[in-house]
Amino acid sequence: MVGPLATPLPAQTGPSPGAGPRVLYGDGVRAPAIIAPPDTSGGSGMVDESALRYYASQKQTARVKAEIARLKRLHPGWNEPPDLDSLQPSPPEEAPLWDLFTAGRFADLRAAIAARRSVEPAWQPSEELARKLRQAEFRTRARAAAGTRPEEIVALFRTDAAALDPTDIESLWTVADALAATGASEDAFLLFKSVLDASNDAGARLATIQKAMAHLKMEQAERLIALGRLNAEGTSEFNAIRLDITRARIAAFLHDDPAQTPTLADLTAFQAYARRAGEPSQTGLLGWYAYKRRQFREALEWFKLAIARGGDAMVAHGLAHTLRELNMLREAEEVAYAWRDRFVGNEILFIDILERKLTLASPPYIEPARIERYAKVVVESGSGEGAQGLAWYAYNSCQFDAALEWFRRAVAWLPREPTVFGYALTLQRLKRQRLFLEVVNRYDGLFPKVVDLVFREDPDGPPLPCLTPAPQAAPARPAAAAAKPEPNKPEPSAAYGRVPRPDAALGRKPEERPPAVQRNEFPLAVAGDNALRYPPAALQRALAEPVPAGTYAREPGPAAMPLVARRVPGAGAMPYERYGYALLPGYNGLDQPEGLRAPASGTLWQEQQAEQGRAASGPERLDRFSVPRPAPAGDTSERAVPQTRGYP
Asked: What is the 3-state secondary structure (H, E, C) of 237-305?
């Protein structure tokens, strides 16, 4: 029998900030889920019943009663074992062995038994002594490995399950925790259930439920909670830990685990406790709960309260997401920026919020200091998303040199079709035909939109917003006195902030750039080599040389490099295929255009595809990552930009 827990955890009854249970965070993106196990370190451990059992086996009734009274004074919730009347007296010669057992000298006891058997091979210790010794050794080894080596505890249990004393609740907890940690949650459930079936100690029963919620799935813990006994008022005995149960149900909801929905009364009680306790983890948990239920105004209040009480970067992450859902984009951007160094999710969110605005074909005005701050974060983090956002903003505001440098970095960090398309489009605008054709050739067979730039009837595309003549205000003086703008010359516009070069974002001097293609270099001759597909001619010759004996043969290069790329799985039809040309078959024999297969369930790719699908369904889809068009006459303020991202 173990020492009882006469009362539940202090977190259930006291509003003191220091008395609440700890809530540990998971991976950062998700809400807190794991409740710290109840503290049993202050208990005395297993109740020493050896003297009681010895007196009972010797049928010394007076001493049995006195020992029972003594143990009850030391352990108020302890009850006498039911098998005292059935104990048989131990042989008198075992008295020294029982003394060693009572003193906890199990190694000496094993040595004494071995010494006795060496003299009398047929001798065996009594069944009671052998059973108690096995249980005590199991308990000692399990306690030594508790919390650090769950596999060792499980191995002990699987080897000799009978060594686990069914009345030793702490050992049952230890083994159940280890089973749950190693994936045997159903076996752990059965051990927790055995405690509820056999124990009448209210404190131990409450602690068992708390441990079950900390180590089992909430669906299994709910089955244990249903075993609670009803008191005289008709309520469950586990109402004393209703706050813990409500917290665990909220955490299960955030992780999409099956669990009962907290009742309004339980949720109200937990909210009142969270306000009194002053712990940011509790108010932050309520913030995430309201956020996932899409009650964003309520989530905003809980997250603000959590931040005011010293909330961490994960709480700030929830606050920024809530502000974005409420279309308070500038506030969300500031929160994410302030907490970017403490949680990478905030840095990603900061880049994403402004990136959506930067990539609009007719972007709104953004302050130069704000753009410079954004550029510095992008360069320091190496974000391909942020780099292509700045590149598109620079391109749409006719800052082509800055756009080229940002596109070059974006292609290196995140070579997607919109990024490569913008890179090629910028080279075309700058009349760098050689590099433009090389980029198109490099991604032939992969990005049809990039190759289509060569086949477009209007290679320059629609006019940029910055090149569209702005309506002139009524002149305040005669028209003859007004200076006429030069024809075909873009007027300077104050509607766009200046985008810094990538090196200038970190305070470095810009590196030297080669001049654009000169007129005397035309017509351009583009080499057929493509380092990403075929080795250059020099390497082909090296591969064709004889291979010395005893060495591995090198892969030979193709005799003649085809001018058409091989078909890539997942890429659509190339624009020149409508003229009768066709890509070569792919490495897997594929000879027809095909779309990408559906990503596997639960993978990061699936999440990214779903995120892109939500973004593509928004009204801003046609204005992003496309050839620019004149600015619409509608609202271009920050709060007018739709946001489609959901729960992190």
From this structure: HHHHHHHHHHHHHHHHHHCCCCCCCCCHHHHHHHHHHHHHHCCHHHHHHHHHHHHHCCCHHHHHHHHHH
pLDDT of residue 403 exceeding 80: yes
Cβ contact 171:142 at 8 Å: yes
Cβ 448 vs Cβ 571: under 8 Å: yes
User: pLDDT band for position 563 (50/70/90)?
Assistant: low
What is the spatial distance between Cα 596 and Cα 11, in angstroms, rounded to a whole number? 52
Q: How far apart are CA 391 and CA 629, in angstroms?
A: 16
Residue 476 is classified by DSSP as S
627 φ, ψ (degrees, to nearest 5)? -60, 130
* Cα separation, 188 vs 177, whole angstroms: 7
Give the three-state DSSP class for 466. Answer: helix
Q: How far is CA 235 from CA 162, 230, 396, 495, in A?
A: 36, 5, 67, 67
Using alpha carbons, select from 216, 285, 215 the residue that is nearest to residue 250: 285
Range of lowest pLDDT (41-50, 57-66, 150-159): 41-50
Q: How far apart are CA 110 and CA 101, in angstroms?
A: 10
Q: Kindly tell me the number of DSSP H helices and DSSP E strands found in the chain.
A: 26, 2
- Above 60 in pLDDT, residue 627? no
Of 170-184, 320-334, 434-448, give the lowest mean pLDDT range: 434-448
Going 205 to 207 to 211 to 214, the CA torsion angle's sign is positive
d(CA 117, CA 110): 11
Give residue 344's Cα distance to chain centre.
11
Rounded CA separation 422/418 (Å): 6
| Residue in the block written with tokens 């009142």 | 272
Give per-residue burial for 474-513: e unless 16+ CB within 10 Å, then b.
eeeeeeeeeeeeeeeeeeeeeebbebbbbebbeeeeeeee
Residue 310: which region, alpha, beta or left (left: phi > 0; alpha: psi -120 to 50)?
left
Q: Which residues of 30-67 are buried (b: 16+ CB within 10 A; e: fewer)?
A: bbbbebebbebeebeebbebbbbbbbbbeeeeeebeeb
Assess whether pLDDT exceeds 50 at residue 14: no
Dihedral sign of CA atoms 642, 644, 646, 648 in order: negative
Q: In this structure, how many other beta carbons lie within 10 angstroms of the beta carbon of residue 131?
A: 14
**Model confidence pLDDT, tens digit, residues 591-600:** 888 776 777 7
Neighbours of 544 (CB within 10 A): 11
